[in-house]
Design brief:
17 helices, 7 strands, 65% helix, FtsW/RodA, transmembrane, transmembrane helix
Length: 474
């Protein structure tokens, strides 16, 4: 006598979500800025700053809400993106508050504008709005692939965002750069959001055209040159970046858009020739505009020798003070709240906030911050490699490339490696547009990483293939 038993295969083992790892890292990301805040207060005023507990609790609540949203709606997302962005954002608020305590900056604001108001509370408010927008993106964007449907609409939207600052009555000329619009008493920098919107267009366009763009017509000096008719897209983007540079005097946005397109083009086609052509066109365009546009020319002059025009040019004075800040910091820095980067002036908490890091935290602090930024970029590239769809791969690499370029041009500008660009350090600098746009960027990378790391559903069981007979002796 025997017993026949029907058995079926077991479904795929579920991959770990890493949400507990994210929560543990998030705790450190909240505690470190609180200690930094206390250190600044003790260094400047000799006592703990008021509201330390309230600030810590508020920041912890915001970070906790972000974690709960990711745990619920992006269960398999990369566990490092949210904690690193939270840490950078928290330290950015501390740096801004430290500069708010400067009597030099307070007196400068009173002389220039008649009054002084602290920027740190506004930055904390923008952080709350940014995390709310972060949650909305994860709630609404269930699948990043739906954005592919809006390829050409996103191109039109990006052009509108770039045109807005040059419209009379709407755009605002701030210290020579026309990159702001004023709405209801608030200033918005549309270019921060345009980099995300235009990345959608680049990803959708290159996904369709990559085979044609990868074709080569002839070989020259070891490079496979593209066909002449395929140069149209890169010429169009190059022209658009030059128009941004000419009409808005915005070197940073121009470099960012063109550089992001070249990076995505190289990834899509795997042709080194596109990188070489892109670099040549970028250098050529920047050289021509730098020699003709007065605002850009002043920044190039300040870059070449800031101390030659230190007493006659505001740009030279800012760059000179920034270089001296980095030099004064040494290896370990002067300590939280004990530097003099406020001598830079009005842009100390925006364009030049990284100079405060260099002086008060030294080379060690600079390398730590660059490592944190590098980790975000690395996780973005890892997400692109893991993505299962070509649109997601290109979109993730485009966002990561744009983030990397922004870090390079800002850090390089304040250190004197390249001319100043007027862009802001992500998560650190004062400004609502930057923090809002960069939290949206992090949300999209989290969504793509969740889709990439989510285990594939187990196939439906087949009675014919999965049923087995187990014969047991009676």
């Amino acid at each position: 006598m025997s017993v026949v038993t029907n058995t079926t295969t077991i479904g795929a083992i579920e991959a770990p979500s890493r949400r507990n790892t994210e929560l543990l890292l998030l705790a450190f990301a909240v505690v470190i800025p609180i200690f930094a805040y206390a250190s600044v207060g003790l260094a400047i005023h000799g006592e703990l700053p008021p509201g330390t507990l309230l600030y810590g609790l508020g920041f912890a609540v915001l970070a906790g809400i972000g974690h709960l949203v990711v745990r619920r709606y992006a269960k398999y997302a990369d566990p490092l993106l949210l904690p690193i962005a939270t840490l950078l954002n928290g330290l950015g608020v501390v740096l801004i508050w430290r500069l708010d305590q400067s009597e030099r900056l307070q007196n400068l604001a009173k002389r220039s504008f008649g009054t002084f108001s602290e920027s740190a509370p506004r930055q904390m408010m923008y952080t709350g709005l940014a995390l709310a927008l972060f949650a909305v993106v994860l709630l609404v964007l269930k699948d990043h692939r739906v954005l592919q449907r809006f390829t050409y609409i996103s191109m039109a939207g990006a052009l509108v965002l770039l045109i807005l600052p040059v419209i009379p009555g709407l755009g605002a000329d701030v210290f020579g750069a026309k990159i702001w619009i004023s709405v209801g008493g608030f200033s918005i920098q549309p270019g921060e959001f345009a980099k995300i919107v235009i990345a959608i267009f680049f990803a959708g366009y290159l996904m369709v055209k990559r085979d044609a763009l990868a074709l080569a017509s002839r070989r020259f000096m070891g490079l496979y040159l593209p066909r002449g008719r395929d140069l149209g897209p890169i010429l169009m983007i190059w022209a658009m970046s030059l128009l941004v540079l000419v009409f808005e005097n915005d070197l940073g946005t121009s470099l960012l858009f063109f550089g992001m397109f070249v990076i995505m083009l190289y990834v899509a086609t795997e042709r080194t020739s596109w990188i070489v052509i892109g670099l040549l066109m970028s250098v050529g365009g920047a050289t021509v505009v730098g020699a003709t546009a007065s605002h850009v020319k002043a920044r190039v002059t300040a870059w070449l020798d800031p101390f030659a025009c230190y007493s006659t040019s505001g740009a030279c004075e800012q760059v000179g003070q920034s270089i001296m800040s980095f030099g004064s910091g040494g290896v370990l820095g002067t300590g939280w709240g004990q530097g003099n980067s406020d001598l830079i002036g009005f842009a100390a908490n925006s364009d030049f906030i990284f100079s405060t890091v260099g002086e008060e935290l030294g080379l060690t602090g600079v390398m730590a911050f660059l490592l944190l930024y590098g980790l975000i970029i690395e996780r973005g590239v890892r997400t692109a490699l893991a993505a299962r769809d070509p649109f997601g791969k290109l979109f993730a690499i485009g966002l990561s490339g744009a983030f990397a370029l922004q870090i390079f041009v800002v850090a390089g500008g304040v250190m004197g490696l390249i001319p100043l660009t007027g862009m802001t350090m992500p998560f650190l600098a004062s400004g609502g547009s930057s923090v809002l746009a960069n939290w949206v960027l992090i949300a999209i990378l989290i969504r793509i990483s969740d889709t990439a790391r989510r285990p594939a559903p187990a196939p439906a069981p087949s009675p014919d293939s999965e049923m087995t007979q187990v014969v047991r002796p009676s």
